[in-house]
Amino acid sequence: MDRMDMQRAQVAGPDLATVAKLLADGTRAGFCLALLDGRAWTATELARHMGVAPSTATEHLHALVRGRLLAEERQGRHRYVRLAGPQVAELIESLAAMAPGRAPAPRSLSAAGRRQALAHARTCYDHLAGTVGVAVTDAMLDRGLLDLERGLGLTGAGATWLEDLGITVPTGTRRPSVRSCLDWTERRPHLAGAVGAALCRHAFDTGWITPVGTTRAVVVTPLGRQALRRHLGMSDQLLSRK
């Protein structure tokens, strides 16, 4: 293959530089991190969150929608944006885990508490993350419900365990059943994919976890501690935020 053929082959591959350029801007990256809560936000809300002018936010959001990192929804006169899908959420979470920490020290006890709550247990788009999310994944591996033989996968025992809990995992979609997502605070994998989402939804529906205010943080309830101790052998000390 001559030099010209090699250049053509390189050009024909995925254009990673375009995605990298979108996330290289701090404001756009901040929007994507905020949208990890799985909700749809308005441009005004995101502008206020990042401390930029609404016109600046709109310009950045147009770029992210064109780049297919965000999806736009309209309800009447209102325009909302959300992450384009779970694969984008997992990309953002994984990149955050690889990024150097540069968050300023919290200026108040309440800010420090919010940071600790997020690190302990939170949602990552539609699945569980943080210390608790990683611990749930570890417990499922220890009990043979997941395995790492060909990357993270659900075992037969795991499928039976989900069925016994009454958890139905959607099928017939393009989303992987099980996927590993690198946790940005723990720097270790937590369970994502359709199984991770179904387990998180079940935890909310049964009252095992409950949201903390309007943040992504969640708290494991007494009922949840009892259930996770029974079904996964997890300790109250691990599940309770200090």
From TrEMBL:
- Listed Gene3D superfamilies: Winged helix-like DNA-binding domain superfamily/Winged helix DNA-binding domain (1.10.10.10)
- HTH arsR-type domain: which residues? 8-103
Q: Which InterPro entries does this one have?
A: ArsR-like_HTH (IPR011991), HTH_ArsR_DNA-bd_dom (IPR001845), HTH_Metal-responsive_Reg (IPR052543), WH-like_DNA-bd_sf (IPR036388), WH_DNA-bd_sf (IPR036390)
Q: This chain belongs to which protein, by name?
A: Winged helix-turn-helix domain-containing protein
Q: What is the lineage of its organism?
A: Bacteria, Bacillati, Actinomycetota, Actinomycetes, Kitasatosporales
